[in-house]
Amino acid sequence: MRYQKPFFMGALLALLGLITTQASAERLFATTLPITDSVSELVQLDPATGELVNTIGSVGYNVTGLTYDDTTGILYATTWKRDPLFPNGLITINQTTGVGSPVGTGVGLGGIPVLLATNSNGELYGWLQAGTDRLIRWDKATGSAIQVGNPNLTTKQHGIAFDNTNALLLFNNDDNVYQIDTTTGTSALLGAISDETPNNMAHHGDISAENNKYYGLDSVKAGSKSLLVIDPVTLTLDSSIPTINDLHALTFAADLPPLGECDSTPGINIQDVICTINKVLTPDSSPFGECDGEASINIQDVICVINKVLEN
């Protein structure tokens, strides 16, 4: 059946309206320390209040690092060295169920990956545990990693995150903040946080795209936690927000349009939706095939989204 252009133009405008109205919203995901059964839980927090929004579910693995890839909509994590099922590995986490899935066979390096961060190009970086102290770059397809270089730092109870200029920052446990060169792995001291953080740490955090502030945790131990909000430009501690117990890693994620049951694959790329609509709008368009630019995309999801918009 060939649909009329006005219907699909309306669908396109409605869909773009959903994207525009929600583009500025963010979700704050967190994983817990493995208190029960040696596995972490995925939860969602309110970054303004620190309150629990939702307990999503068990990851099934012991999570150390956590990051969200804006280019694919996929949530990634690294696993602990003593995880009984998949130590020192890269996993993806379903944002609806919390279930983790291994990528490849493991880091393939001598060190232990403990931190994770993704830049605006979708490049995935990590950090090796104290004693090795190296920047690494992950291959998202194979789940293996390579060492980028030596920052000549002693690090622990720390965090890495990309700011709004795509610079990689490291927040160390001595309150010093460094910029890390993602090509060479070398470090440059930016300064120390002027208001000393509790326990001299703001570990396993992320930078919000909305306000360019770094949100880290004040303790690596089980028990009470606070979100420490740090301005990476002025190097000041803006606030300390009490949150739920036993958290270990944080990451911000884009708030995608409410696709409902259309979203059967967590990696859906909204560009594929727009591409598909454009193909239909073009009289001599080729089949939907080339719209499916990402392996994780289910083109039926795209068609489902269009139908949902047309129904409303």
Describe what this molecule looks like in 3D.
The chain folds into two domains: about 5-20 and about 260-310, no CATH class; about 25-255, TolB, C-terminal domain (Neuraminidase). With about 300 residues, it is mainly beta. Strand 10 (about 135-140) and strand 11 form a beta hairpin. Mean pLDDT is about 80; it is low at about 1-5, about 20-25, about 255-270 and about 285-295. It is about 15% helix and about 35% strand. The protein is built from three helices and 20 strands.
Question: How do the strands and helices of this protein lay out in sequence?
Answer:
Layout: H1 5-22, E1 26-32, E2 41-45, E3 52-58, E4 63-69, E5 74-79, E6 90-93, E7 100-103, E8 113-118, E9 124-128, E10 135-138, E11 145-149, E12 159-162, E13 168-171, E14 176-180, E15 187-192, E16 203-207, E17 214-217, E18 225-231, E19 236-243, E20 247-254, H2 270-281, H3 299-311
Helix pairs in contact: 1-2, 1-3, 2-3
In the CATH classification, which architecture of the largest domain applies? Answer: 6 Propeller
Remind me, CATH topology of the largest domain?
Answer: Neuraminidase
CATH level 1 name of the largest domain: Mainly Beta
Q: What's the number of structural domains? A: 2
Relative helix content: 10-25%
Q: What is the beta-strand fraction?
A: 35-45%
Taking the alpha carbons of the first and last residues, their distance comes to 20 Å
- Reading the helices and strands in chain order gives HEEEEEEEEEEEEEEEEEEEEHH
Number of strands: 20
Backbone shape: globular
Q: Low-confidence parts, pLDDT < 50 over ≥5 residues?
A: 1-5, 18-24, 257-268, 283-297
Major sheet: 4 strands, antiparallel
User: In which order are the strands of the major sheet placed?
Assistant: 3-2-1-20
Radius of gyration: 20 Å
State the fourth-level CATH superfamily of the largest domain.
TolB, C-terminal domain
Q: How many helical stretches?
A: 3
Structural class: mainly beta
For this structure, the quaternary state is single chain
Mean pLDDT: 81
